[in-house]
Structures
1.
Amino acid sequence: MSRKFLETETPAWVQDGLITEAQRQQLLARYPAEAVAAIGLLPLLGSLLLGLSVLSVLAANWQALPPTVRLGLMLGSLLGAYAAGNYFLRRGNRSVGQGLLALGLLLFGVDIILTSQLYQLVGYDASGLLAWVVAGVALSFVYESSWLAALTLGIAAAVQTYYAWVLGSFSYATALLSLGGIGYYWGRRPSVLLGQVLATVVLWQAAALVAVSHSKITWFFIPAMLLYAVGDWLPRAPAATRALQGPSLVAAYLFTLGLALFGETDQYAGLLRPPLLAYLGALAGVFVVSFIGKRRQGRLASLPDWLLLLPGFYLPGGLPLAVATLVVLYCYAGAVLLRAQRATDGSGPEQLTLGAVLFVVATMVAYFRLTWAFLDKSLFFLLGGVLLLSLSWYLRRRNAQALANTPPAPDERKFPPTT
Amino acid sequence: MPITILSAGRRRLLQLLLAAQVLYVLGVAGAGYATSALGQHLQLRAAPINPAELQTGNYVRLSYDIGNVPLTAWRATTPPQRRQQVYVLLHTATPDSAATVAGVYDQTPTASTGQAVLRGWVETVQPRRLRLRFNLERYYVPAASPLRREKPRRLHPLLVSVSVAPWGQARITAVQLRRTEPRPDTAHTQLQH
């Protein structure tokens, strides 16, 4: 709660007899003015400026320095950042300590790149960057820091992108090290944020693999749903499960949406069709794994998530495909709304908002795809406006009813992590 | 929450990790140094892809004459594939000391005296020609290099000194201007860049 909010609102509370004037003063004393916090930032800003000036002097004269001096500076700043990070952590200043350790890890990568440049070793070979990922994984384990683990995943994603983009190849070692190492770390100390980063980086690397191998892009959903199935098997809290499964579902939803929008041309749908038996076999295998996991963990309510994976793109392009995809989108939105009403873990309001948004999206897509061809333009916009307004009124009413029935969750106004 | 005070075991691990990072960076530097100290030296004709990069960037991209070879130089039973690793056998004892292609192999060929082997990768396979890359296509131009003072137009013919380590790694050691006029056939290839 901000000081400003208290200052403007509390006089009315006193007037209404909610609190006394003395209590109001106590409340205000609890949240001192923010000027103090701003003054606390000054030394940080000052040291940042000093650091930047040193950096710019070095950058300007970098080429003129002899190689040994350059190496010394690079290694000195690397060790300095780690030592300072360790020092601040020991004094209990977690954020500064972790920030400096992260700086040390980033400097290691910079050192590898600059040293390769110094000796003209940079071309198309990037195996040296693998050492960067190894160092990140090891550092995350030494300090048991989820923050460093997330940074390592980011580094791995960057290295993999470089491999795919510049070299046109996929680094299995990077994928194995980063996902295996940090995945194991997440298994031991799960956190929602790290789960989301982990799932996103898994999908990123899967996409890189599919792009590099020039496969049909639909193959991406086999590893993506395998990750989803892993989430089904892990006995975690609903929030942690959603963190791991969310990115896969977002990808599947966006894909289905794209199919509804552009799937009418057989040309696009043709780009998506992998060999029928191989793809369906793999997908069915993953589905069975996911289903068994859901049943063991008592999460069969989330089974309709698999609606998004229905391989509608095997249908002939044109109207049948568009209609079938729209039906899937509506069914999914309906399933989310239904699940929201039955939710017992406090995620009901979140799910309800999500379901409402999905419902509106499906309606808009249906309207744009199917009505444009048959109606006069002005009538089209008129009907669309009326349709959306009435839909929002209806959903708002249902939302209000549902909120009145469920005990409010602490963060009910926030969007769920899956959006 | 990170660990704030490391146990003795973790402290030891951290020290090992830091030592490994420092050694790795030193190792990269050492490999670069050893490649020129122990390696075989050869010279290659090249042209900058965009001479203006010397004014705007800190590296220049190079296109090598030996990176564009006729398919008749291919010495393997299977046809070349994109991204395949290949070995280029070079004649180094040429009149103007710039190496020329003797053949492109998919296995390491044995080099006799006056020859060298350079590792490369197939970039594209054209109907009659093969385009190769060597991981040497980027040259970070030192600030003191005389190339920096050249007018962009004059920079076309370059002679690139390359060292090839016994373990196959190659690096550029120097780039200088090629003052001699290019032969007619190389002039033809340069027009294509």
2.
Amino acid sequence: MAAGQNGAGPASQTILVVGGGIAGVTAAVEAAEAGQDVILIEREAALGGRVTKLNRYFPKLCHPTCGLEINYQRIRKNPRIRVMTMCEVQGISGGRGDYKVSVQRHPRFVNERCTACGACANATETMVENPFNYGLDKVKAAYLPHEHAFPMRYVVAPEAIAAGEGEKLKSACAYGALDPDDKGETFDLHVGAVVWATGWQPYDPKNLDVYSYVHSRDIITNVEMERLAAHDGPTHGKILRPSNGEPAKKVALIQCAGSRDLNHLPYCSRICCLGSLKHAAYVREQYPDAEVHIYYIDIRAHDKLEAFYDRVRADPQVKFIKSKPAHIRVGEDGRPMLHGERTIDREIYAEPYDLVVLATGMQPSAVAGYRPTMGLVADEYGFLVPVEGDGEGMFSAGVASGPLDVSMSVQSATAAALKAIQAVRNA
Amino acid sequence: MTTPAPAAAKTYDLSFARWVRDNVNGGDKLNLCMQCGACSGSCPIGVQMDYGPRKLFMMIRAGMKEEVLSANTQWNCTSCYRCVVRCPRGVPVTYILQDLAAKSAEFGYAKGPHENKNFAQAFWWSAATFGRTDERLVTMRYFFSLGFGEGFKRAMANLKTAIGMVKTGRMHIGLPHMTKGRKGLKAALAKAREIEQRN
Amino acid sequence: MSEKKPGVYLCKGCGISDAVDVGALEKVGKNEFRIGHCVVSDALCSPESVASMQKDVADGAVNRMVVGACSPRVMADKFRFDGVPVVRANLREQVAWSQPAHEEDTEMLAADSIRMAAAQLAKTQQPTPAALGEISRTILVVGGGVTGLTAALEAAQSGYDALLVEKSDALGGWSNKWSMRAPHAPPYRDIYGNDIEALIAKVKANGRVRILTNATVAKTSGQPGAFDVVIAHGGQEVTEKVGAIVVATGWRPYDATKLTHLGYGASPDVVTGIEFEAMLAKGAPVKPSNGAPVKNIAFLQCAGSRDPNHLPYCSSVCCTASIKQALQVVKGDKDAMAYIVYEELRTPGTAEEFYREAQRNGVVFMKGKATSVDGKAMTVSYSDELLGEDVPLGGLDLIVLATGMVPNSTNVDAPAIEPEKSEAQLKDDINPVAPIKVSGYAHGEGSPWPHIDKGVPPGGPILNLQYRQGPHIPILADGFSDSHYICFPYETRRTGIYTAGPVRRPMDMAESAEDATGAVLKAIQALEGGAIGSSVHPRVGDLTFPKIGHEKCTKCRRCTVECPFGAIDEDEQGRPTVNFARCRRCGTCMGACPVQTITFDNYNPQMVNDMIEANEIPDEFSEKPRILVLACENDAYPAIDMAGIARSHWSPFVRIVPVRCLGSVTLQWISTALQKGYDGIMLMGCKSGDDYQCHFVKGSALAKERLGKVGETLKSLALEQERVSFEEMSIADSCRAPTVLDAFAKLVGDLPPNPMKGF
């Protein structure tokens, strides 16, 4: 429905982007740089989403922060973009050009006066699981999300307030930025179009009970591997066995841990093969004598990324084993033991490893949180796909719309930005 | 029911695969196999099979009728259902193997002394006769079905185990245990046979 | 210009006043730079302080500022005042957080930070943009396939005119040949009709789209907002003004005549996927040799793709295309058998369901490599990896070779223009298949695909750019058109020209349409940027541009040659002329200019020279060496900042000057620093080479090359070579940065002091 038709007020030229990962950030800056006002809301305390937690990108093995830094510069320079963190959409009503979006802001306990000086972190004694490192280590309950956080502002975990540290933190802050009484709030936004870039969550490895994720600390997921390899991760970039801190010299990478599986995620998550090839490079870069075994069904190094597959295949210490491992047990020496059939020579194997990495797939975040009820519809997997011809100003971008890699997400977000611009300008 | 197509030349021939699809219980789902190996890797006795289920399915696809129907794979399945639970493509591996075994027997691929077939027949005799399996009778019937000499040799070899089992109450001596209402059981089985033949 | 009224604003917060004497810094501003308006605040970013700064501006007390506080990477929105140049002195991350409190060296560092900022401010002007004003809001779309059609339509729907130029006589491109399409919408399993006709009709009906078929681009000159494009059409050449260009020239199938080992040419019953598509479009397929119905059909995947003798890459769409064709066969004829011989089956994303759909319908998938094809006997020799034996696949009626995509990044029908120049240009690029060389992870030398290093695509340029840098849009080593293929996939090195669709990466119709939509947005930004003189990515909104002082220019052409974006041409007299709307404002030209006559309003050789000279250099007996670090502001500088955020410490003798890109570093600065008495100089920037990470493509590579010439200078001054160093520093090197700085400080400290001190 076009604005004015429901008599609710003038058409809004503002575009709301939901989700501040690479797709959302891209959609926001691209739309704003074409002259549109944009509100970018993000559920977490800082932008960057999943990519900010990656160590490097395939195939160039460059760092995600490099591109993010440029994107954050673009946001900083552009007064048309308003960034709201710790915010989630609760509901939407209205029509194209005239959406009323109800937004819930979760308490951060730190307001915009924060200078990121770190005095609150020094004051708190409470420790919490570090969300940036997927809980692989702990962090002070008053913390900067990470060193590249944008906005560069601290956040206080509710645990610190529950521990009664609120007043102590408040008095530690010289700038009046601590607000222990922050209850969050609900407010409405009036926007003309919405880009859903709500991204993904790693498929829960606990669902893959045969892979014994809960039984061994040396069985980790691919997103955890990214943190293990990152300089700002729990091991400062050393790939060590979580159980004993020893170097991981024999590593198994298991593809399709959940993906391409009717019992879990029926689709292929697209990025995991290349992600694992990258993980092989991480390990091999650190340990000249390390062995990496990649267990796969098909290696899906699509288009130009085939070259990256070639690079890794050229390494004699990386072996590709065509097999979906049947199960993982913890061996007598405490090492994870993979069991299965090597399909090429039909050998039944029982192979111990220092570290096993499950290439868990991407599940759309929309399976859990709020999702729109007009303009877009969730497919059976939870991806948001367009309802053709309903004239709504709702668009999905990035992994919210399907399992995409970074480049394709950026492509999708740029396209969504133009569609959103058309929607508000033609409202 | 049609008989399996003539053996293919050593080339891919879908006619056997199609016969399996149309005639074997669960065969219609077999096409979905993507050869990941989760079934063979999960199988607790996979090492004893000529081919694991995965390879057997590929052979069906390749039209290798003789090799498939003569394989011991389908006879070794213990119906633990691990493969079925884990199969990412929802292939009912256990059902397919069970029915393939029946078809192998039916079309004469399990001729003469055939360990698994004979054991299965002894097991079925006990279940159908008493409504229960009697370890003693099943074992003896199975051993001696392989010939008198072989039966005697095996019985002697397992004597110690048998005595041990009796001592610990794991096997009893005397009349076999039977279910109540065996008449009903017999009637049910007869009806099942009738239905099967009608198809 | 109105009177310059500088002000110095100093912050005491975040530990700054705990580490340094802020009063002393105030004196630097007042006494050394004669800036009367100096303000010290407990927290400069507090709303109260910002309001009072705003008031100073409104009252006319100041119209330009030094802000001595945190890093310029934070609080940018707070210290932004209309029309007021603001220069930041990084007293927090790079002084208070990374140096011991109140040590003499820390105080000296802080004072130097203010000096550098004040010197920078003195040479900073509010930019006067070179706006084109009147621009063309027409977007030229080259190529009338699904990508081009979508681009034209999206441009029109966004309120812009589109000029669609198609080489052939019909619109639709390869899409015209498709009988049906593979699914891209839920439930992801149903084949659906080819809707290209509907798209063509929509484009034709749109009043904003002008279509020229049988037309090619003969010449392109100008810049975003004002390109002059000569179009050859019907034997005539017409000149059109356009604002931006989307190149959607698509692809062509790999030449199947090169696939004789797969039986192509041996029998009419061996066909390519494209040829089979045409057969399917006519109805139930029949054998070309005798018209008999096709009952047994084999699809051979990767026919030419992923093959060291043919195409190095995966063509992405062939698996899905063969699945679609196989499904059409088995659904059309229940008795037909379809076999797909593959090495890796690639149905990424939701296409996995399409794979299952084919299996459900009885399509047989066979993993292995087809080693040879006997076209006469219609038998495929194939080694089945899963059965572990060679299985001849005989009795086939039709063999379909799933040939891959070759990008139309050149016009194969046109002769190469200036072949030598083309080759040099095309090879001047990253090699996507070079071995990984990070941290010692390298296996074997050279590319596993040696042939592509030599592989300059045949044919002439698509746009025939009348640029100093040659007629082509740069082409990557695998033959695809330029694209920064991770973070910023639309970026090419020819501003205002965007490539979309399979010309930049193999992709299917749905993805091509999406790609076209994104490219149109970039095109709109580029032409609108030209109108107001504002830069596009990555320095979006930058209104400065390179100004060339022609009185000093020696016409050496270094700027025109080295510009990574082909922004500078030469006029008839050989003088450089800047097409500012093509310029990305990296300053590579400034770094190239041997007489330092290229300047930006807020960034110029004299400015950095003054900053270098502004610092106090202690005498040779002080044992306080001085090290100048010229750091890339996009990666190295943030890495050093993040080291400060982590409260890492490093040598207090280091003076860091952020630069737009290492490409903008002129050797003059190094010479100035040596003459001033700095003991060591380090250039810190991005990785160069095959896996380059420079946002301006070759800035760091050029800097490295230029630095190679410094050796002679050092020798002539009787200085040690080690005094000048180049360090690759990525943005994720916050842990390494302090170590690198300390190691260099130690190395320099162990050398005798620079004898030029005090002269």
